[in-house]
Task: structure prediction
Amino acid sequence: MRNAKMRPTDIQTSTMNDIKEYMKGVGQAARAASRTMAMADSNAKNHALENIANAILLNSAKLIAENAKDVAKAKLEELDAASIDRLTLTEKTINGMAEGLLQIAALPDPIGEISDMKYRPSGIQVGKMRVPLGVIGIIYESRPNVTADAAGLCLKSGNACILRGGSEAIHSNQAIAACVHQGLREAGLPETAVQVVGTTDRAAVGELITMKDYVDVIVPRGGKSLIARISSDAKVPVIKHLDGICHVYIDDEADLSKAVRIAINAKTHRYGVCNAMETLLVNANIAEKVLPELCKTYLDKGVELRGDDAARKLVAQMSAATEEDWHTEYLAPILSVRIVANVDEAIDHINTYSSQHTDSIVTENYSKAMRFLREVDSASVMVNASTRFADGFEYGLGAEIGISTDKIHARGPVGLEGLTSQKYIVLGNGQIRI
Amino acid sequence: MRNAKMRPTDIQTSTMNDIKEYMKGVGQAARAASRTMAMADSNAKNHALENIANAILLNSAKLIAENAKDVAKAKLEELDAASIDRLTLTEKTINGMAEGLLQIAALPDPIGEISDMKYRPSGIQVGKMRVPLGVIGIIYESRPNVTADAAGLCLKSGNACILRGGSEAIHSNQAIAACVHQGLREAGLPETAVQVVGTTDRAAVGELITMKDYVDVIVPRGGKSLIARISSDAKVPVIKHLDGICHVYIDDEADLSKAVRIAINAKTHRYGVCNAMETLLVNANIAEKVLPELCKTYLDKGVELRGDDAARKLVAQMSAATEEDWHTEYLAPILSVRIVANVDEAIDHINTYSSQHTDSIVTENYSKAMRFLREVDSASVMVNASTRFADGFEYGLGAEIGISTDKIHARGPVGLEGLTSQKYIVLGNGQIRI
Result:
């Protein structure tokens, strides 16, 4: 790296001081671009999204060729099969990226939306206007399609963004960034609205998460250790997703056919996802009726079962769950099972062990459903539905930048609105404070 | 301090380890109380607020006696007159506290509010429910009335709170806390929902702002150095207020009588407040017409003027403003004045120097008003109104815990809603993800 004026797409090694200067340059360019993006009209932003989608489709051969360099290196370095799978771009994933961008273009523009304008006794009219956050820093791991998704969401919500993908995907990310820049340029928007950090040096992340003057919020996407590290070191606010320890509670007044359907879907639809159920709670009054049948299906599907003593009395193939199990996000075909006396015990268990991601009750009882909704302190709380629905697309947000398990700013799936804020606006006619 | 089970109202000296244990105990009690408060119905919360108001009025002699101890100590330690003034409780401030609590009781309960419930193609119905944040830590300086205000707002919004007032107000704060506890007890709510930290040791603040397991958000109230220190050391999210460098821009299409009225009010209504104007921007086309008259009034009121060259040509008594001036929150009868060529230059100046608190344009031109509203990136943006209106009461929030100059979660005056969050709720009928 020669100096701070290098193009952010250059890849070079560097000293710590160079990195500091370089990231400052990236930050300043992002801050300047964010001012333009905040004022960009919906048409310009939608044209940019459509242009980027086109550029990605037209350059698919190039993207696959660049991606092949990353994949070859990953194989040489003996990355595990799952990581290489996430890293690999195919015609299908490329079409998916373009499709995702067109879906974002079709969403309503959140920026400039005015709401709640009310006259006050002083004669002023006060309400809110939705505005971008400014500059979003996104830190992610191997999936290169995040580059297009994240750029699209930030662009539509009027933000500038600084993307820092995994070093193993650097060629793929740079090639996608070239398409993004082409699309922005053709729409008359600044290319610096989306910058891909051009160095694989880890120190760049350290700079990104502490540049309070240039970055308004950090969204880390990746494994738990990455997110925990970033949250602990960041000086910029972080919208984060930690564990997904999700529960389904089958009440004694559940419709058992719904209960079985939901409990099977929540665990076995996909194992490695954050909204999969990890612990099943069953009311003691109906445990004998529902648990053996349910567990037979789990075992048939190859799910390992770990339970408390009461559950193990009903299902012979269940091993003993430890305290550790209730705290564990397996992300695997393993399920912990606990028998509870009533909805109070279920809520207590969830508020103690849940990661406040997504929890569901199956019941036909109105009052218990309402209590569960009110009292379970999680980002998504459900009645008679599979935890697998906790997702931006399923919720109608159109796309998501991630799922937040935080309490402030945004909870649950974070779509365009989570990348915005509201300022107060006041319309007067010469009023002064008396 | 003997052990972690001491009552939080005990005042004793202690070792660092004792403080850690003590604060952990306070945190655990707050977390437990927050669960009860989240489920408390509106009636119970309103009764508690009314009971506290009563207790404060009935114990006014006691409050004044306890306050006298703090005031005597402050005088002995030769605190400045302004600090002693803020510290002193009178019949009037005590009535004000009680009145404030009754006003909070009269506000609608934000908790449990359900909005935006929409059916999705999968058949589930998705929307949001407003919920408390959990445990709020409030750190403040000499004003003892904050103890009642903050307790009232946290209580109504279903949160538990941990209050850490200035050591100079410890007797006053403890006496007010006793009234709060009496009111909570009489309403059947846990006293630990409002805890006043019982040690004046500074280490307690260090614990409070890093206890991520027990505290969900910190609201610091006080001077800039206090807030900067807390923000930099906190591991818990902080809702903060830094500078209030507010601007009024008088456009060349302004109604000059409105302009003069607003510019005078914004600067001279009160000098030491965050929403007072610190810099006046005047369009060059009307500067000659409006500035001499306006400045005569400022000078009559004893306001010192500092301006750029163009402004100084029009007003002889104006000294030269330095770059430093544009960055300064005077909180005093000093005003910086700059002549700008047009609304673009005004917006540029504001987005460069403003602390993103509150900025106002005076104009009769529709397009310029709309551009100013959209393009000025501040928590409150106004047209033809005094910056002094940026206030929770004036905005109809009923009361405010503070004014946020942050971008995420809450911008501008923070009322009950700023102490809440929204979780997703999903109502299903047995739906599973396919």
Remarks:
- The longest strand of chain B covers residues 420-431.
